[in-house]
Amino acid sequence: MSRACVAVASLIVVAVVMASGCGPRRGVRRSTRPPRADTLLSPAESAAALNEARQPGALATVPAAPVELWTGPGNRPFEVATRTSEEDAGHARRFGSITLQTALRARPLGQYPCTSCHLGRKVVMAEKRITDAHQNVRAEHPRQTGALCSTCHAADNVELLALENGDRVTLDETYRLCAQCHFAQVDAWADGAHGKRLDGWQGRRVVMVCPDCHDPHKPAVQPRIPFRAPRIERPQGHGK
Amino acid sequence: MSTDRTPEVPESADDGTVLQKRVDRRLALKILAGGVAAGTQALGACSPLSAATDQEREVRLLAWQEYIKGNYRFMTDAERAETIARLERLAQLQRGVDVTIQSTGAQPGVQFGYAFNISKCKGFRRCVEACINENNLDRRAATQYIRIFEMEDGVVDLDHADATFQHEVPAEGHFYIGTQCFQCADPPCVKVCPVGATWQEPDGITVIDYDWCIGCRYCMAACPYWARRFNWSAPEVPAEEVNPNQHYLGNRARKTGVVEKCTFCIHRARQGRLPACAEACPTGARVFGNLLDPDSEIRWVLANKRIFRLKEDLKTEPRFWYFTD
């Protein structure tokens, strides 16, 4: 009886070890090989392909657009796609006819593209593994809301985000993902009462997108020590 | 005998040309300045105590020419170019900084407006920091145009608000509200100025000609928002921290005994850029734009959000609104 128990237990242990061996290794694995351009689709193309397969004709992704470099607050560089709501089905559906240009999000990311590590393998969406490879991710938001990784990230393509309606969008269209719950904020953002505008008050309205200010995994504005308090009293030495 | 001479008759031909010409204040000062400059040079030539170098002589001459110039508002374009050239040269000689001083005028069809989201502001004071750097504010006296008040939830009461908080923010049960010059449409500060050194520009910004201000501080007494600042001493800004992008009516070097204030960063706003405070705000609490543009962000906020202004009953019509999410 006890031998049988030991045998069963050892089998379980072996299974667990094998299962954990299938996951990604500890630490960030960076591929030195360049991505295979012939087989890998760009995120926009792959989102288009996925959306096309699911719902023919309902294309809702960022079209290829010329990219410019803009300077934001604190001389921070921003890549901006010049596109308008007419070209962007997501915008047109959600925001009517406003013209809006958004800062691009994906390329400045440090661990982007994701395929530099994931190499097309289907990724097991488990928080334990995520914290191994992505140690900068502090998953406050999913913890508070009970969301899983796959609530926002597409399990079938790690480069993309998954919307509740089944659409796949790139990391440049995070506002469409956030709008699913934070619709009031995203509406205010689209109209100009929330968020920040790049460059100036005049001319094209180019705005920063949600993750430029909010960490997607820990979006609340964190407390901090303010800049020094004013000296209200009069300075001692008058004149000079 | 010469006793029967009438006083109207000039003594000599030289005096006559001066007396019979209509002499205004500027011309008289010009003549005086010419004499002083000549005298200074003569003195410099013979006295070892005031042996001025060429550079010192140039500074004195420029300073005198600056002293006798007119009010910026009534200068011709040529006069404005001259004074700007002198000021840029003086900055180079006296402070060792190369600055560019604009005289950019108001854009037609633009009225600037500002909206401040009291739901978003967390009291980080990044706007204050940016303002100090952008506007070359006095580091020694720690002049600040912007005040952020910390207030308890539920009531807007500036009398019991704390503008000197220095702890981790946002504090529990408090909200934050920023004040600066509100660029009133009917500004009491302009009405009381006895010399016309402050006025409202066509785009709604109230500006000061620092070289015309006599430092009486009536405007500071008149402002219901406590928005103006007085220079008890010449502002001190380290040469490496001077912002060289300047405007005659904005952030150029001020001197002792003149009043200054926020101009919505006139040197930036008139070029289509955001004021430094709006650009620096990390929470997006500040909205700036053209009130005459129906598609602007500020117009959307004013039309769709719950808004208020401070001390609206005084009817100064500030162009600065507060709103909540």
What does this protein structure show overall?
The complex is a heterodimer of chains A (240) and B (325). With 240 residues, chain A is mainly alpha-helical. Helices cover 33% and strands 8% of the residues of chain A. Chain A has helices spanning 2-22, 43-54, 89-95, 115-118, 127-133, 140-145, 149-152, 174-178, 183-191, 210-213, and strands at 67-71, 77-81, 101-102, 161-162, 168-169, 206-207. In chain A, the strands form three sheets. Chain A has a two-stranded antiparallel sheet. Chain A has a two-stranded parallel sheet with strand order 3-6. In chain A, strands 4-5 form a two-stranded antiparallel sheet. Mean pLDDT of chain A is 65; it is low at 13-38, 55-64, 82-99 and 233-240. In chain B, 30% of the residues lie in helices and 14% in strands. In chain B, the strands form five sheets. A four-stranded mixed β-sheet of chain B has the order 10-2-12-11. Chain B has a two-stranded parallel sheet with strand order 1-8. In chain B, helix 2 packs antiparallel against helix 3 (54-67) and helix 3 (54-67) packs antiparallel against helix 4 (77-95). Chain B is globular and about 65 Å long. Classes of the chains: A mainly alpha (240), B alpha+beta (325). Chains A and B meet through helix 9 of A and helix 5, strand 10 and helix 10 of B.
Span of the ends, CA to CA of chain B: 91 Å
Mean pLDDT of chain A, to the nearest integer, reads 65
Q: Order of helices and strands of chain A, N to C?
A: HHEEHEHHHHEEHHEH
Q: What is the number of helical segments of chain A per DSSP (H or I, 4+ residues)? A: 10
Interface with most residues: A-B, 35 and 52 residues
Largest sheet of chain A: 2 strands, antiparallel
Helix percentage range of chain A: 25-40%
Number of helices of chain B: 10
